[in-house]
Structures are given as C-alpha cells and as structure tokens.
Amino acid sequence: MEFFLCVIGMVMIVEGLPYFAFPARMKRWLLMVLEAPEGQLRGLGLFLMLIGLGLVWMGRG
User: Fold this and answer.
1) Is the pLDDT of residue 4 over 80?
2) Quick check: 22 and 29 in contact, CB under 8 A?
3) How far is CA 17 from the centre of its chain?
4) How much is the pLDDT for 58?
5) Whole-angstrom Cα distance, residue 47 to residue 7?
6) pLDDT reading at 27 higher than 80
7) pLDDT tens across 29-47, in order?
8) CA–CA separation, 14 and 18 (whole Å)
9) How remote is the C-alpha of 10 from its chain's centroid?
C-alpha cells in the first residue's frame, strides 16, 4: 500500500506540473482536446496506456 501511495503521488505531481508551469498554454490545449473527435482521443488514450504498461513491465523486470 505504501508503494501504491507513492506511485499515485508521483502521478499527481507529473500531472499537475504543466498546469502550474504553463496555465495559459494548458487552457489552449484543453480547448483543442474538447474539439478533437472521440476516436482520436480513444486512440491517444490506448497509446498512452500501452506505453505506461510497457514502462511498468520494464521497471518490474
């Protein structure tokens, strides 16, 4: 559980960094995401999940 909480904390740091460092750019980027087709967003989500799975596999190996 301690490791899990550390991982969640690190994810939150990485996710929050762009909003803290570049708030105006993040607003523009979020507007672009809202206009993107659902299929494109699903493809991007799948790609990111596969990359994350690969990183976890490499880290645990």
Assistant:
1) yes
2) no
3) 11
4) 93
5) 20
6) yes
7) 999 999 999 999 999 999 9
8) 8
9) 11
